[in-house]
Backbone:
């Protein structure tokens, strides 16, 4: 599998005041602040994936799962569905095709400038067809690109293929602007792929991400279950319990926008 399973430093040094700090930030959220969660690199069922889905299910919080089409099989889908227990809180959508880098230099990308439009369209279309054929009506027409980025040709192709929205990370809109016909429901809080070497810096930066996101009126939280440990699961559980108790925030679903 082409994903890293490194645990970010903050999860190796759990902070006892993390729940309090997050709670204080969310208490300051203006009424109507939107929150959503997006989990990337889904497709191969494992313990971490099951635990993640169970936590969302227990709190009744919607989760958007970005599935890598090449990884999914009928039997894997059956297992994922079983964990979803009826599916109503899960929004299944597409995450690239094989999650491989095709860029020759610079930042990684599966749908960047170093591939032809024809090659990119072929991969997007077969990913879409595969997910539609396995998931049926559970497949939602949204696209999360691997590494959160794609080029402007890919944006055109996604519209041609009928995708209704994409989800990248904050800042990508400046690099590859999208029109209103393909909105970017971007994430602005990264839980599990943080790069701070020092855990205290990691915690401060994570809380700052939440603070800044709250001020924008929409908090989009990105998860990578392969990189979660016990501390990361505990924080996720705390995070969702704080959110469901907060009357000012509204849980967002891509499929209900
Ligand atoms: Zn990914």
Residues:
């Amino acid at each position: 599998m082409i994903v890293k399973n490194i645990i970010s430093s903050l999860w190796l040094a759990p902070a006892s005041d993390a729940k309090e700090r997050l709670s204080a930030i969310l208490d300051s959220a203006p009424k109507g602040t939107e929150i959503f969660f997006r989990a990337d690199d889904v497709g191969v069922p494992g313990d971490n994936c099951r635990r993640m889905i169970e936590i969302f299910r227990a709190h009744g919080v919607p989760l958007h799962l970005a599935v890598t089409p090449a990884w999914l099989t009928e039997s894997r889908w059956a297992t994922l569905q079983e964990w979803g227990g009826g599916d109503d809180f899960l929004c299944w959508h597409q995450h690239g095709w094989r999650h491989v880098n095709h860029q020759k230099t610079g930042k990684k990308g599966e749908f960047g400038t170093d591939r032809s439009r024809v090659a990119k369209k072929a991969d997007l279309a077969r990913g879409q067809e595969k997910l539609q054929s396995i998931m049926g009506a559970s497949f939602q027409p949204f696209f999360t690109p691997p590494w959160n980025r794609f080029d402007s040709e890919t944006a055109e192709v996604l519209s041609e293929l009928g995708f209704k929205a994409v989800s990248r990370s904050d800042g990508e809109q400046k690099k590859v602007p999208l029109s209103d016909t393909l909105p970017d429901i971007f994430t602005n809080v990264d839980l599990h792929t943080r790069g701070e070497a020092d855990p205290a810096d990691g915690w401060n930066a994570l809380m700052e991400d939440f603070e800044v996101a709250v001020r924008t009126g929409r908090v989009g939280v990105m998860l990578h279950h392969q990189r979660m440990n016990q501390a990361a699961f505990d924080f996720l559980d705390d995070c969702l319990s704080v959110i469901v108790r907060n009357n000012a925030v509204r849980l967002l679903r891509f499929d209900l926008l």
